[in-house]
Request: fold
Amino acid sequence: MLEPSADEIRDWGNSAIQLITEYLGGLRDRAVYRHMFSRRIRDRLDTALPRKGTDFDSLLKVFREDIIPFSRQNAHPRMFGYVQSPGIPLAAFADLLASTLNANLTVWRSAPAPVELERLTIDWVRQILGFNAEAGGLFVSGGSMANLAAIAAAREAKGDSPGRLRIYASSETHFSIAKAAALLGIGRENVCHVAVDEHFKIRTKELIAKITADLEAGYVPFCVVANAGTVNTGAVDPLAEVRGIADRFQLWMHVDGSYGAFAILAESTRKLFAGMEHADSIALDPHKWLYLPVDVGCVIYRDPEKARAAFAHEAEYTRIIGEQGDETFAFWDYGPELSRRFRALKVWMLLKGVGLDALSQAIESNLACARHLESVVQDSDDFEMAAPVELSIFCFRHVPVQLRSQSPKALDAFNERLLIALQRDGSSYLSNATLGGRFALRGCVLNYRTTLRDMEILLDDLRRVARSVMSSEQA
Ligand SMILES: Cc1ncc(COP(=O)(O)O)c(C=O)c1O
Reply:
């Protein structure tokens, strides 16, 4: 098993490909999710520490019978929960090829062509965003790691300052920013959350007031984080205005575009991102709205030398000997990781294989699905929107006629029960958000397979499941 023959490799490949085609072909017929218990899954797995090996067909059988059915089907067109990409078959092949080559993208000499491919692909991402020609960055595991790397660079750029450092971000900002502040020793408490307006965008007057008050109190403001698509509602902060405020107070401007920034590729939302290209850094997630399978996040720095100051570290065993110029390039100088997977291969295959035109169309179609749901909800008498749709996230509540006179609290509790019942039903999957203190059903269209009809099926599923929730409560 450690070193199979060429025939064995071919046989394994054929069996695996057969499984992949069956799986993808039958996606729509599967439940997105089924209710399961940890014990039941564990009972199916042979837990004995293996002394002897097992043939490939038996391993594949476990994957087919015990893993796939007991997983949430993230590629399903009605998987609307969280910010979940569906993956693309092309990237599954890229991952297979990357693992076969097993390139380790630490430094140029360790993986010359893979490093060049990552640098090229990062530059394509830079061009998509419209950043300056000198900007650069790298692929990381995801948006959380990209945010951490950017905040580390921002702190380094501030240099030594007496007084507590402060970061500013709207109250809708993803928790990975506070986590990064905690891990970097800045402290969670030094992330100042600024209130949002009725569109869930940062209130810039309040941002200015908070920075001014902190300066007077002796704090050291150093960074403002703007959202290019918040996780709850998809709100895009006024990026050009935030840039102006960052300049006025000499702050590093970081954009968290993990969910939304690639919607710059869609004509109908492009203008929302004006000013994003002037940020000092941006966190992105190709494993969100570029549809790629986890894990691939990305951080781009306007001035990569500032990141280098944060991450470069001298060690004898990594000292670059005998190379000069471009061949001395080291990714470890720009991010937290040393050993790094060949993530760039799947991003390159996607951009080169699919092309920007088809990606723009797919993103536009996702936006249209979310807008369609919003308009159907607004025309209905049994649903209400809980937030405006800005990108492909939609937040709403079911208000069946029988419950219309109930208090907001009772309606929220009903929607929470409905969400759990919907998830267990399996036809559609939503997650939740708390907006202005109220519970909301929350969905995010992030799958090129999703159609306008799927949005209508979702509402029908909710009505059907709600009836059974109400009748079981009356019984
Ligand atoms: C706006 C935003 N930022 C950051 C993250 C974290 O990304 P990741 O899960 O790739 O670490 C998410 C995840 O949903 C997000 O929506």
The mean pLDDT is 96. Residues 83, 142-144, 174, 176, 231, 256, 258-259, 285, 297 surround pyridoxal-5'-phosphate (CB under 6 Å). The chain has two domains: 103-354, 357-474. The chain is about 45% helix and 10% strand.
